[in-house]
What does this fold into?
Amino acid sequence: MAKPLKLQQGQIWKQGDRFLRITRLERLAVEYKSTPSPAIKSSLVHQATKKEFCRLIKSAELLPPAPAPGPRPIGPE
It folds into this structure.
């Protein structure tokens, strides 16, 4: 049996040649942006129920999260 996935805000899913980024996640609704590249931040926001969104990403691949930037040194350089 497949391991269940948990939707989280900021996740990026690759479906064919489109990337879906979750921008807002609520109990029953999902807001997401659909773009041709994961680097593009500006796009129309789409709304769907969680059920509709899960059906949409059924054949999609979850991309690994981007690495967090390392801590910056404090003090004079």
In short: The longest strand covers residues 18-25. The longest helix spans residues 50-56. The helical segments are 50-56.
